[in-house]
Specification:
6-stranded mixed beta sheet; 5-stranded antiparallel beta sheet; about 280 residues; single chain; Rossmann fold; alpha/beta
């Protein structure tokens, strides 16, 4: 069993601490959604847990090992990451791109072997990209391109897959396409998936575990039913919302109707300032 968690994790940009003493655990074999307002630190946490960033203190533990102390090649056999807005050199075909996922499993500059090609073909099938295998990446639509990148991550054949806002800039059809592929991977292949999700209703619908992040700290965690509450939305997102239950899936859905920008506090501050200025 691959147990993944953070241990008093601290992350900083230069001298500014973004995340301090964070302790979260990722359930094995489930989809976990990291949610939070812009600037809350959720993408920074994801990058650090996937070893794209180095923590200033603390550890990320996978299967009893501190991942930032392990070799890059070894960790690349355990974790794969799809960052926001990935880019590829011009002229690469879908097959070329997906084949890069086999790099951690190859020795030196050896050509792809039979096992590599079988894994590449499987990843292309899983993402429904068979008709585009020889198509250059730059000729694909946004949704097709995102599926090709997911296929590359799958070809890496890791037990844990990280994705940073995988549906950003996609229209509704392609958003659902990508999310359904990830759900299928989790259910059929038992992959542990950790993703930063901008759309709260996508998080609730597709993830079995949610972690709400506020100012670099965990504000709530658990099932969507436990996390998606009016209180959490007001605290973490500064919005007031009705919580509805999807009759098809039974998961909670968020229907926001106004922001709550701390009006009461602002009124007190403004009143104090006006008194001090002799206005009232």
């Amino acid at each position: 069993m691959k147990k993944l968690y953070t241990e008093d994790l601290q992350i900083a940009y230069e001298k500014r601490i973004i995340v301090d003493r964070l302790n979260i655990e990722i359930p094995e074999g489930e989809i976990t959604a990291l949610v939070g307002a812009n600037g809350s630190g959720k993408s920074t946490i994801l990058k650090t847990m996937s070893r794209l960033m180095q923590p200033t203190q603390g550890n990320v533990i996978l299967d009893g090992k501190k991942i930032h102390q392990e070799s890059t090649k070894q960790i690349a056999k355990e974790l794969s990451i799809l960052p926001q807005n990935p880019s590829a050199p011009g002229g690469l075909t879908v097959f070329d791109l997906v084949s890069y996922g086999r790099t951690p499993h190859q020795k030196g500059m050896k050509a792809l072997n039979l096992a590599d090609r079988e894994m590449i073909d499987w990843a292309i099938r899983m993402t429904n990209m068979e008709d585009f295998t020889d198509r250059p990446i730059e000729q694909l639509s946004g949704g097709q391109r995102q599926r090709a990148w997911i296929a590359m991550a799958l070809a890496q054949d890791t037990s844990v897959l990280f994705l940073d806002e995988p549906t950003t800039f996609l229209d509704m059809t392609h958003q659902l396409d990508v999310m359904n592929i990830l759900k299928h991977l989790n259910e059929k292949e038992k992959r542990t998936i950790v993703m930063v999700v901008h759309d709260l209703n996508h998080a609730s619908r597709y993830a079995s575990h949610m972690i709400a992040i506020k100012e670099g700290q965990m504000a709530a965690c658990g099932t969507p039913q436990k996390v998606m509450t009016s209180e959490m939305l007001e605290d973490v997102f500064n919005i007031r919302a009705d919580i509805l239950i999807d009759p098809r899936t039974g998961v909670p859905l968020c229907l926001p109707y106004e922001t709550c920008s701390g009006c009461e506090i602002k009124d007190v501050v403004r009143g104090t300032e006006r008194i001090a200025a002799g206005i009232i």
